[in-house]
Design a protein that fits this description.
Protein name: GNAT family N-acetyltransferase
Strand content: 15-25%
Family: Belongs to the carbon-nitrogen hydrolase superfamily. NIT1/NIT2 family.
Number of helices: 14
Shape: elongated
Largest sheet: 14 strands, mixed
Structural class: alpha/beta
GO molecular function: acyltransferase activity, transferring groups other than amino-acyl groups
Organism: Halobacillus yeomjeoni
Radius of gyration: 28 Å
Pfam families: Acetyltransf_1, CN_hydrolase
Length: about 525
């Protein structure tokens, strides 16, 4: 008898994180598991994978998906006792997923009918428990169906039914399974899933406690989370050297530090002030000579950010890369690290006079004050970019700008305020004022810099935290509160982020415009 090839008998069962290529099989699985109930849409599962891929699991058996579960992290104390499935999942999109929350919330689990009693559900629950332990979460919470209740609703209340199941006098395929997996009943919620007729729309809210949870002093409920911003309305005037330019910049960073600012924000292409002593009249040549100061500029602001303990949005500067000129804004973190955002939309003026080339990636940056984005002047006039940045977690969008007349300035201002309202985000604009009489194409400036908020009761009446007087050299200092922003996104008078009609429209970005979020 020849040696038996054992691989021909193998049928591998693995539990792994969900992937995009699993989505179609999950759709088919859901139809089998929950007939008559509204299924997932592709955009739901894509949102899960984008926001919390670690919390989405599947069971694969011999190459087929036979089980899956979805979850998100929340701070459960912030939700009403009578919340619904739509409340806890933002109607299935989990855009309310909170990486700093305390609780893993399970929103769905399903097992192929032909593979039940093979402990598929137990494997998925164990995967959730391992995730909760790895992330040091306090507990797992689930809203469980009671699909056999419709057989008993004429003879007992939901509470009585739950007691009978708990005492093992009645078998319920979901509730019995959850109890056997260590979950305890917290309460019963009515109207949890409106299309769950078998449960008569009721659900049991259940919890599994992580006994290995270790309390962390840095994790606590915040009543306020202020970030102080100083906006510099920079005066463009003739100077004689880079050292003179550096002294002006250091003065403003020093002022920002004295005010305890978290960010100091300079305007777009304010380094063109250096052209006033370059004695080059041809704009295309002058901009290339300006780019020779790039290393000096970077070294100066890196030093200032660390010395004065302030994160600096270094306005923007013309940089030569591979013989092309780009308009780049740099983030100089106070820990000494540096990031950069290329201007994506180039104005006709920049293209004609200086030959500026566009960038092709929207960036979102981690800072010690949360995630931020930078959108240079013209970019804030394209609403898709701000929407994209906020979807990736940005709470503040900084907008360095440079405009020569009131009409141009108002385009930037109105669009920045519109983005603040549309995306429930803070926006900050910083512009140049004054004149550079000896510099071609940079001779006049117009600005009124400011800090803007969404428009709702929680914020300043006019949606303006602070603004400079127009066309004078000055600063404005203001606090933006990230905790108020978080609450307003969840329960404001209007909730643009949550009420978006994703069933009607969505944004898709082509290769080369991909988001590149930083990791803490």
């Amino acid at each position: 008898m020849s040696k038996i090839d054992l691989t021909q008998f193998e049928k591998k069962m693995i539990v792994r994180n969900m992937q995009d290529q699993d989505i179609e099989q999950i759709f088919e699985l859901q139809k089998l598991c929950f007939p008559g109930m509204d299924p997932w849409k592709r955009e739901h599962l894509e949102s899960h994978l984008k926001l919390f891929p670690e919390g989405q699991f599947v069971v694969e058996y011999d190459g087929d998906i036979i089980g899956s579960c979805s979850s998100l992290i929340v701070n459960f104390d912030e939700y009403d006792d009578k919340h619904t499935w739509d409340d806890i999942t933002d109607e299935g999109y989990i855009t309310n997923h909170d990486p700093d929350g305390y609780n893993l919330y399970g929103i769905e689990i399903m097992v192929h009918p032909e593979f039940r009693r093979m402990k598929i559900g137990r494997r998925l629950y164990e995967a959730r428990k391992e995730l909760a332990a790895a992330l040091n979460l306090k507990s797992i919470i689930i809203g469980g169906r009671i699909p056999n209740y419709h057989q008993h609703e004429n003879e007992m209340t939901p509470r009585q039914y739950v007691e009978e199941v708990r005492n093992q006098n009645i078998y319920d395929p979901v509730l019995t399974f959850q109890i056997m997996n260590g979950f305890t009943v917290m309460r019963i919620n009515p109207n949890y899933l409106p299309d769950d007729e078998k449960s008569s729309k009721y659900a049991t809210l259940m919890e599994w406690n992580n006994i290995d949870y270790r309390a962390r002093t840095k994790r606590h409920f915040k009543t306020s989370n202020p970030v102080r911003i100083m906006v510099i309305q920079y005066m463009m005037k003739n100077i004689d050297s880079f050292e003179e330019f550096a002294k002006q910049c250091e003065y403003y960073v020093d002022v920002a530090s004295d005010y305890g600012s978290d960010f100091a924000v300079f305007p777009e292409i304010f380094t063109t002030q250096l052209m006033s002593f370059l004695d080059e009249k041809v704009p295309s040549k002058a901009v290339r000579r300006l780019s020779e100061f790039t290393e000096d500029y970077i070294e100066m602001f890196t030093h200032l950010a660390v010395r004065y303990n302030v994160n600096i949005i270094g306005g923007s500067h013309f940089v030569e890369e591979d013989e092309k000129i780009y308009n780049i804004s740099y983030l100089f973190r106070r820990d000494g690290t540096i990031e950069k955002q290329y201007k994506i939309h180039v104005t006709p003026n920049e293209r004609t006079w200086w030959g500026i080339q566009p960038g092709d990636a929207v960036r979102v940056f981690d800072t010690d004050c949360g995630k931020i984005a930078i959108q240079i002047c013209y970019d804030i006039q394209f609403p898709e970019l701000a929407r994209f940045a906020v979807d990736q977690g940005a709470n503040i969008i900084f907008v360095p700008f440079c405009t020569d007349d009131r009409q141009g300035y108002l385009r930037v201002r109105y669009c920045a305020q519109a983005r603040a309202v549309e995306n429930q985000v803070y926006t900050v604009i910083s512009g140049t004022v004054g004149n550079l009489t000896q510099v071609e194409n940079m001779d006049i400036q117009y600005a009124q810099s400011g800090i803007f908020t969404p428009s709702d009761f929680e914020f300043a009446r006019d949606g303006i935290i602070g603004e400079c007087n127009p066309n004078v050299e000055t600063v404005v200092v203001g606090d933006v509160d990230l905790e108020i922003l978080r609450r307003q996104r969840k329960s404001g008078t209007v909730r643009q982020l949550r009420d978006r009609r994703r069933d009607l429209f969505e944004l898709k970005y082509k290769l080369g415009t991909e988001i590149k979020p930083e990791r803490t």
